[in-house]
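Quick one: structure tokens for this chain, please?
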Amino acid sequence: MPDRRSRRGRTVYQKGRAGGWWGNQRAKLIFEKGMNAQYPGTAGRSAGAYYEYQTRVPVHGYAPRAVRIEVYGDFEPRDATVFADGPTQSPHRYSNGALCMWYPQDPLGRRWIPRQGLVALLDLTGLHLFREAYWRELGEWPGDEAPHLQRGRE
């Protein structure tokens, strides 16, 4: 919520900060652009050190999955961690259950970057969940893979 101050009988709205980038209404609107149209029912809330989104993501050919995303950053979104319900068996999950959707050292064109926004991250999440389901069903990963230190962990 913006900071409200009265000046000569008028209310003046100022940029407020609620602990992170999500306190800046402009940054939040830009990051969430298109979210309600493409992912209706998405809910967001401040969770202390990050802003958390929860929604359902369609997975082509498989059941939709409940997804939880933690978005970190001080003045703008900087990083995100994505979790999904359902089976966790996958060569592309971290030990905490988070999805390993891109290799951090990949060039920008091969990974999600925060300025692409929430919708792009949710689209990428749906693709990753499809690849996981396909891998569990047929034993091969459809798409590029980065090297991993151990099976199931980067």
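The mean pLDDT is 85.
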